Amino acid sequence: MLNNNDGDRMDWWDKFSERATIDDIERYRKKSIFYLISFCGAAVILYFSAKSYQSYDVTLSVFLFFGAIFITANAVLAVLFKKDEIHFYFAAICVFILLLGVVYTGGYKNTALYWLYPMPLIFFVLLGVKIGGVVNFLFFIALLILLHPSIAIPASYAPAETSRFFTSFALMNFISFIADYFRHQSHSKLAKISHTKLRQAYTDSLTKLPNRRFLSSVLTDRFMKNSEYFPLSLVNIDIDHFKAINDTYGHQVGDEVLKNFAALCTENIRKDDVIVRTGGEEFLLFFVNTTKDQGTALAEKLRELIASNLVHVDGQVFTVTASFGVAECHRFEALDHALKIADKRMYLAKQWGRNQVVSQEPE
Questions:
Q1: What angle do CA 272, 255, 261 make, to 5 degrees?
Q2: Cα–Cα dist 62/53, whole Å
Q3: Cα three-residue angle 159-163-166, rounded to 5 degrees
Q4: Contact criterion met (CB below 8 Å) for 269 and 254
Q5: What is the distance between the alpha carbons of residues 103 and 153, in angstroms, rounded to a whole number?
Q6: Which pLDDT value is given to residue 16?
Q7: Are 95 and 119 in contact (CB under 8 A)?
Q8: How far is CA 161 from CA 1, 100, 144, 336, in A?
Q9: CA 255 distance to own-chain centroid
Q10: pLDDT tens digits for 197-248?
Q11: Is-cis flag, bond preceding 231, omega within 30?
Q12: Which residues have C-beta within 8 Å of that of residue 277, sequence separation ≥ 6?
């Protein structure tokens, strides 16, 4: 038998589908906000760095200048290396330290506290509800310590000013948390509905296998984006004399044969491979990282298993056979051509007597 699952077979949907749509939109939203905040924020910081220099506050000017450079460099590296999540954290750490430093010095004309109000929302957007909440809490505690009357800092804030600031800043944290929490909850519910609907659209209702729509919309896209699947062995499979089964036993029995056939194939292919019902009694099997010779051997084992399996339906006991056509593909651009070859070889298997695997045409 081909089954190498050991009870840990990954579902075909989780294995090959992209958790796209809403998840992709959410990632795009976070990235867009990150880049907007990074580049626009860096420009604003550079502006105040220049203003501080003109006001002879060299220490603040240099501090702001290097903060802007780090934020810009972090965003540029995110673009180059496409590791967005890591750079979200780097940006948050930089902003955390930068703003504490600005509060410590007082900022340009002692306006540091006014620039803190957007921070809770930014931390939630970049880091999510849980981690963003922790960071906002730590930031609030750090501000409480830094602005405590017993701490001597260069900045000068009136007690009434800091009191009003902490009250309004705490309220801003709470509102930002509530807004992002319910946005996250709504996103999760919409994502679940979207994924359920997508799976239904991409699943053959009878056999529960992926269908032709999944093949054209998801699977081929994965093959296009990932060379790791190649070489790829394509096996076109057609159940022999299926029309005769329907005519003899009825369509209900024919449906049971298809379900039995799909389950047998699914349970006896490797966990990284995938089988698709392309229509009627035809199936398309993809053996990933497999040459034609290896794919032919795997297809032959599957053919023997199918031919030796007894089908029990409504008191009827009979065997089912299938014809196989095998082709090899080394790159995505050749996939359509390989599919045509596999289809042609499957029909040759039919012509040559059925219940066999054909991996090449006669010379």
A1: 30
A2: 8
A3: 140
A4: no
A5: 9
A6: 65
A7: yes
A8: 76, 17, 13, 70
A9: 34
A10: 888 999 999 999 999 999 998 888 888 888 899 999 999 999 999 999 999 9
A11: yes
A12: 204, 206, 207, 209, 210, 211, 212, 258, 262, 283
- Helical H segments across the chain, by residue range: 12-16, 22-54, 58-81, 84-105, 119-146, 159-202, 212-214, 220-225, 242-249, 251-267, 292-308, 335-351
Low-confidence ranges of the chain (pLDDT < 70): 1-10, 16-23, 363
CA nearest 20: which of 233, 317, 218, 259? Answer: 218
Residue with tokens 């809490």: 137
Residue 149 to residue 145: CA distance in whole angstroms:
9
| Cβ atoms < 10 Å from Cβ of 353 | 9
- pLDDT tens column, 118-143: 999 999 988 989 999 999 999 999 99
Cross-strand partners of 327: 234
Cβ within 8 Å of residue 210, ≥6 positions away: 12, 13, 16, 202, 203, 204, 218, 219, 274, 275, 276, 277
Token pair listed for 265: 């194939």
One-letter-per-residue 3-state SS of 81-101: HCCHHHHHHHHHHHHHHHHHH
What distance in Å separates the CA atoms of residue 187 and residue 22, rounded to the nearest whole number?
8
- Structure tokens that stand for 225 in this block: 């984006």
DSSP states of 163-185? HHHHHHHHHHHHHHHHHHHHHHH
Q: Model pTM?
A: 0.65
Helix (H) / strand (E) element for 326: namely strand 322-329
**Residues in Cβ contact with 340 at an 8 Å cutoff, skipping those fewer than 6 apart:** none
Burial of residue 363 (number of CB atoms within 10 Å: 0-12, 13-18, 19+): exposed
What's the confidence (pLDDT) of residue 197?
86
Burial of 281 (0-12, 13-18, 19+ CB in 10 A): buried
Q: How many CB atoms lie within 10 A of CB 108?
A: 19
